[in-house]
Design goal:
mainly beta, 16-stranded antiparallel beta sheet, 45% strand, Fusion Protein Consisting Of Minor Coat Protein, Glycine Rich Linker, Tola, And A His Tag, Chain: A, Domain 2, 6 helices, 411 residues
Length: 411
């Protein structure tokens, strides 16, 4: 029944967005993505979790095919199609609004809001059997614990004040370790301890006003091991961050070769492997050509994994050097001066091969700087850089050496 329900949800999501198919640049497509235990995209039979989400239906509208930005509502599922989480992404592809996370038994694990990928406002946490566990408030970079209940259901922290205790599996040991400490106005205060199953302190940290970390110490077998005055604070709670892994579309090596564009399979595109010539003794390189066909008959191609090719002066390297030495025109007073040094120019080669945004990064003198800017601004066209086989804008840095009244290009 759960499998049928998930299929119906997927078909409904696809249908809701089908009205936009007339404009390949703006519509979105619902995708069901399967992940294995290592958070790699895999086939359905090997899936541990899965995500139903929206991505632009045209691959050329996705900036990073390996880590695309999701949009709008998403639903994550356990392998048996029980809901793991529900939430939203904004237009910038950042987690936004209310998110709810669930235990495998369907009970709510925690619930709260995100703003630009960061937890914000009030969050609530529950136990596996539905009892209240924690209430916290996220304010910019700070977190305040407002309420807490122990394992038998007694409220030990109220309105940010009280003693916090929590049991958790001991690392590499049988039994449970214990975390305990005081809270004042929601912040950690005084001394906090982690105690192992044998009742020995493993870590102690001291806090001042508003949870400011003051000092810490670690112990081994009840004896002091080290002291420190900076480092990570003892973590009281964390908001589930597995989404960061699900926002990376890395291929499962059991089903895909290294660096394979799994998003192309998700989008039902054709993928061709293109081998490149390699130097002697080096492993052969390759990239993937993705061919996407649209319902209106249009076809688009993308080269995935192709090396970035830097911009090239169209007339060649020899003429590149000759251009500067032949066209430089410095005032007469500079030719007899003892001035020498380095000028560094920054500029952009556009996707059309034009030189723009010329500026001084490191200057030498107003007259030298002005001529260097003029020379770069009036350069002939370039062959633009390419990324994934497509022309792209690239920022360049060019150092000159000025001496003896003229310039030379530093290689």
């Amino acid at each position: 029944m759960k499998q049928i329900l998930l299929l119906l949800l997927f078909l409904l999501a696809s249908r809701l967005l089908s009205f936009a198919q007339q404009d390949n640049s703006n519509d979105y497509k619902a995708l069901l993505i399967n992940y294995n235990a290592a958070w790699q995209v895999t086939n359905p039979e090997a899936a541990v979790v899965k995500r139903l989400a929206y991505l632009p239906s045209a691959l050329n509208k996705i900036t990073d095919l390996r880590a695309p930005k999701f949009r709008y509502a998403v639903t994550d599922y356990y392998a048996d199609n029980t809901v793991l989480a529900r939430g939203h992404y904004d237009e910038q592809g950042k987690k936004w609004g209310q998110w709810t996370f669930y235990f495998p038994n369907g009970q709510v694990d925690c619930q709260g809001s995100f703003t630009a990928n960061k937890p914000s406002g009030n969050w609530k946490f529950w136990t596996l059997d539905g009892k209240p566990l924690l209430e916290a408030r996220f304010e910019e970079e700070n977190m305040r614990l407002l309420s807490s209940w122990n394992e038998v259901g007694e409220q030990t922290v109220k309105n940010g004040n009280g003693i916090y205790t929590a049991n958790f599996p001991a690392e590499g040991k049988v039994g449970f370790s214990k975390l305990e400490g005081m809270l004042i106005d929601g912040y950690q205060a005084d001394k906090w301890h982690i105690i192992n199953p044998q009742g020995q302190v493993e870590m102690e940290q001291t806090y001042g006003l508003e949870g400011k970390f003051l000092a810490g110490a670690s112990y081994s077998n009840g004896k002091l091991k080290s002291k420190y005055t900076s480092g990570d604070k003892i973590t009281i709670l964390t908001v589930p961050d597995y989404m960061k892994m699900m926002e990376q579309l890395n291929p499962d090596p059991a089903f895909y070769e290294l660096k394979y564009p799994v998003i192309a399979d998700l989008m039902q595109c054709e993928v061709l492997k293109v081998n490149l010539k390699s130097s002697r003794g080096a492993a052969p390189e390759h990239y993937f050509k993705i061919i996407q066909k649209f319902d209106n008959g249009e076809i688009d191609t993308l080269d995935y994994g192709a090396p970035v090719v830097m911009p090239v002066f169209q007339k060649g390297l020899k003429d590149y050097y000759k251009y500067f030495t032949s066209n430089a025109k410095f005032p007469a007073e500079l030719k007899t001066s003892k001035l020498e040094g380095i000028v560094v120019i920054g500029f952009t080669v556009t996707a059309q091969g034009n030189v723009e945004n010329v500026k001084i990064i490191k200057g030498l003198s107003p007259l030298v700087d002005a001529e260097a800017v003029r020379l770069v601004s009036t350069m002939p066209g370039w062959r633009p850089a390419t990324r994934l086989g497509k022309p792209v804008e690239m920022t360049m840095v060019l150092p000159f050496r000025f001496s003896n009244g003229g310039i030379s290009i530093r290689e």
